[in-house]
Amino acid sequence: MKKVHNFSAGPCLLPTTVYEQAAEAVQNFNGSGMSILSISHRSKEFIAVLEEAKALALSLLGLENKGYTALFLQGGASMEFMRIPYNLLAHRAGYINTGTWATKALEQATQFGEVDLIASSEDQKFTYIPKDIIVPTGLDYLHFTSNNTIYGTQFNAVPKADCPMVCDMSSDIYSREFDYDKIDVIYAGAQKNIGPAGLSVVLIKEEVLGKTSRSIPNMLNYQEHINKGSLYHTANVFAIYTSLLNFRWLHNLGGVSAIEKVNNQKAALLYKAIDDCDFINGIAKVDSRSKMNVTFDFVEEKMAPLFDALCQDTKIMNIKGHRSVGGYRASLYNALPLESVEVLVSVLQQMNSLV
Ligand SMILES: *Cc1c(COP(=O)(O)O)cnc(C)c1O
């Protein structure tokens, strides 16, 4: 079988060794003769998995011993859109709107209190990250989305504010160095850069909790999940184990700083090819470009069928843009090899020689 180059935006590619080890564990977990799918979430074997996953989830970002708890929950990032204001919004929160996911997060928050729109890039179809953001004082928290998966834009720094910071990092967590410790609640759906779908990771500073007087149902209550160590109910055992395998892979590689170098290399290579080809437009503004999701379109629609055919020949898969934006999107998450980007670049160069 010819090698496939899978640019999926999510659920995304994971390292080959992670697939192999996860597959082995489905048959025979840690030599126990039992499948990872069929052991108790309260067994001592799984508790060891959970504790190592929590420790690595924090230490890979330099957040160990800084007052954070790592939670492994369910409901995806979309559940956190609601769980965040349920737990943190007493009066007023600020939201930066940089796209579909940020909009959804903001809309959920309006059900719990006042929401200030602090900045937005909606005026230019979310193709840029707002600059010189001024945040008023007295907010319960400020929410932003570090990487906008659909549009291919990315914050290169944490916005400055004197309130607790909350960030949806679904599509760039563990991809780069960042001032993670300036953010009080970091959350992510696992299926972009952590592990399989059906799991969300929330890294939370306990000190931001307990500021609202509303009563919070247990499943929605961060404090309850902290108290129960992510075992309030049956955890997603397989997704947590597979995420642990991915955390170990990243740790052995040298951590976030090591993968960031590779990610920078992949993104630079692809953006250069896009900039070198007059027949392609990048969708995101140059100074807001994401290193995880590269969005582009052809100047003339008639180029698209040729590109599609070349992609098919070279086994480039899942590169169509999000249905709301159109065009193309190449997702370059941690596990995507440099080689796949080189194949995509060679396709663009081949087209360049034809025009
Ligand atoms: C994919 C994505 C989401 C939605 O995640 P679910 O786990 O499907 O709820 C939210 N935010 C961002 C930035 C995403 O990329």
From TrEMBL:
User: Keywords assigned by UniProt?
Assistant: Amino-acid biosynthesis, Aminotransferase, Cytoplasm, Pyridoxal phosphate, Pyridoxine biosynthesis, Serine biosynthesis, Transferase
Q: Which Gene3D superfamilies match?
A: Aspartate Aminotransferase, domain 1, Type I PLP-dependent aspartate aminotransferase-like (Major domain)
List the InterPro entries: Aminotrans_V_dom, Aminotrans_V_PyrdxlP_BS, Pser_aminoTfrase, PyrdxlP-dep_Trfase, PyrdxlP-dep_Trfase_major, PyrdxlP-dep_Trfase_small
- Highest rank taxon of the organism: Bacteria
User: Is Plastid there in the keyword field?
Assistant: no
Please give the pathway this protein is involved in.
Amino-acid biosynthesis; L-serine biosynthesis; L-serine from 3-phospho-D-glycerate: step 2/3; Cofactor biosynthesis; pyridoxine 5'-phosphate biosynthesis; pyridoxine 5'-phosphate from D-erythrose 4-phosphate: step 3/5
| Entry binding sites for L-glutamate | 42
Name the coenzymes or cofactors required.
pyridoxal 5'-phosphate
Compartments where found: Cytoplasm
Give a single Pfam family match: Aminotran_5
* Catalytic activity field: O-phospho-L-serine + 2-oxoglutarate = 3-phosphooxypyruvate + L-glutamate; 4-(phosphooxy)-L-threonine + 2-oxoglutarate = (R)-3-hydroxy-2-oxo-4-phosphooxybutanoate + L-glutamate
What are the protein's GO molecular function terms? O-phospho-L-serine:2-oxoglutarate aminotransferase activity; pyridoxal phosphate binding
Q: Which GO terms describe its cellular component?
A: cytoplasm
Which residues are noted in the entry as pyridoxal 5'-phosphate-binding?
A: 77-78, 101, 149, 168, 191
> Its Enzyme Commission number?
2.6.1.52
UniProt remark on cofactor binding: Binds 1 pyridoxal phosphate per subunit.
Primary role: Catalyzes the reversible conversion of 3-phosphohydroxypyruvate to phosphoserine and of 3-hydroxy-2-oxo-4-phosphonooxybutanoate to phosphohydroxythreonine.
Outline the subunit composition: Homodimer.
> What HAMAP family would the database entry show?
SerC_aminotrans_5
Q: Which family does it belong to?
A: Belongs to the class-V pyridoxal-phosphate-dependent aminotransferase family. SerC subfamily.
Name the record gives this protein: Phosphoserine aminotransferase
Species of origin reads Myroides phaeus
